Amino acid sequence: MSSSIVPSSSSSLAALGWDDSFAAELPDGLLPARVARVDRGAAEVLSTEGPLRAHYGARVRREAAADPVALPCVGDWVGLRRLAEGRFELEALLPRRTAFVRGGVARVSRGGLSGDSQGQVLAANVDVVFVAEPALHATDTADLGRIERLLALAWESGAQPVVLLTKADLVRESLEFLMREVASVAPGVDAYAISSITGEGVDVVRGHLQGARTAVVLGASGAGKSTLVNALAGTEVMETQQVRAGDGRGRHTTVHRELIVLAGGGLVIDTPGIRRIGLYDMNEGVDMVFADLEEIAARCRFGDCRHDSEPGCAVLAAIEDGTLPERRLESWNKLQREAVWMASRSDARLRKELQNKWKIIHKEMRKTGRNRP
Ligand SMILES: Nc1nc2c(ncn2[C@@H]2O[C@H](COP(=O)(O)OP(=O)(O)OP(=O)(O)O)[C@@H](O)[C@H]2O)c(=O)[nH]1
Ligand SMILES: [Zn+2]
Question: Does the keyword Metal-binding apply (predicted)?
Answer without folding.
Answer: yes
